[in-house]
Design a protein that fits this description.
mainly beta, 2% helix, elongated
Length: 346
């Protein structure tokens, strides 16, 4: 079993001869739809091998076997079934439950959800987690002391998890000690990157640069900072200077930062002014903005305008998607909506 993430099973075996194959595994208790899962298919040379079995809920009994794929007319070969158990859910980790579910509306290629939460409210302990479609925790890690997780995400290439060690909301130091940790699925830390001022959103680009929203205490401002893979840091954009240029008298509260690889531009979401600004990444120039700041693009229809928006990003078809409050009167519990906006070039 993995020493850090105690839901992950590490299996080892001696390969008597070369073959192409995988490790098949299943677990109990299981939902009726659960069947044999498998590790990626690989070429195994003669000798010792090790594989990680992922996606297993904590507190499961696991059965696994090594499978040699058929070669021509040769039948599939397997080892005898082996069994072991992983650990129970770590103490203090939140226990989710599924309130409602509509499998027909799910993307069948997406099996897991990555998220973070504090538990219970007011607790100094914050958790990053991965859950499956049934709401079962299959991966969990607690934030370091005096830090919290706020906007964790996969790395751009999908090989690592980027965990924000946020100090702004943990020890209220204006983000001076905030960092981002590149973490493998087994919990090992590849690199810890200093991101001074980090208090909310960040993203990674294809060249492994990190862009983040930095709180500037004096003056009360927010800057978009970038640090490349070699550690060089620069300022891309200053919120107050932008507001001065367009004649806006607004605060600079922001949330997420999204990088569009097709245009090498950045969409920075400012919930305080109900505006999303598109920036040229190289120059930091504001290309256009959507919301209620002077000079914003108009909304058609008018009541499609978002406010207090979060999670602004582009879909594959080029539309802008945000999570937003809505101006319409809705029943209690339905005061938020997703806004999908066509992005017409002008």
């Amino acid at each position: 079993m993995n020493e850090t993430i105690r839901s992950i099973i590490e299996v080892r075996w001696e390969q008597n001869g070369p073959s192409t194959g995988h490790v098949a595994y299943r677990f109990e208790p299981a939902e009726p739809a659960d069947d044999w899962m498998q590790s990626p298919t690989k070429s195994f040379a003669t000798g010792e091998h090790e594989e990680l079995l992922l996606g297993i809920p904590y507190g499961s009994a696991v059965t696994w076997k090594v499978v040699a794929d058929p070669d021509g007319d040769e039948a599939e070969r397997t080892t005898a079934d082996q069994t072991m158990e992983n650990d129970a859910l770590p103490p203090g980790c939140p226990v989710p439950f599924v309130r409602s579910s509509d499998p027909k509306g799910m993307d069948p290629s997406i099996h897991y959800l990555l998220g973070s939460i504090d538990q219970p409210y007011g607790s100094p302990y914050f958790w990053a987690f991965i859950v499956d479609r049934q709401g079962r925790v299959v991966w969990a890690q607690r934030a370091p002391a005096d830090r919290m997780f706020l906007q964790i995400k996969p790395s751009y290439d999908g090989d690592e998890i980027l965990l924000d060690y946020n100090s702004f909301w943990a020890i209220f130091d204006n983000g001076a000690a905030s960092q981002i940790a590149r973490t493998r699925i087994d919990g090992s830390v590849v690199e810890v990157i200093d991101t001074p001022g980090l208090y909310h959103g960040f993203t990674e680009t294809a060249d492994h640069s990190i862009l983040w929203a930095a709180y500037e205490h004096d003056p009360n401002d927010e800057w978009l900072l970038e640090k490349d893979a070699s550690g060089d840091q620069r300022t891309v954009f200053e919120c107050n200077a932008f507001h001065d240029a367009i004649g806006a008298n607004e605060g600079c509260g922001s949330n997420n930062v999204y990088w569009d690889p097709k245009s090498d531009t950045i969409y920075w979401s400012f919930f305080w002014s109900d505006t999303v600004v598109q920036l040229d990444r190289e120059t930091g120039d504001a290309i256009r903005w959507f919301g209620r700041l002077p000079g914003s693009y108009a909304f058609d229809p008018v009541d499609s305008q978002f406010w207090w928006q979060h999670a602004a990003h582009l879909n594959d078809d080029g539309t802008l998607m945000v999570s937003s409050h809505t101006s319409k009167v809705l029943p209690v519990g339905k005061a938020a909506a997703l806004r999908r906006l066509a992005m017409e070039e002008r």
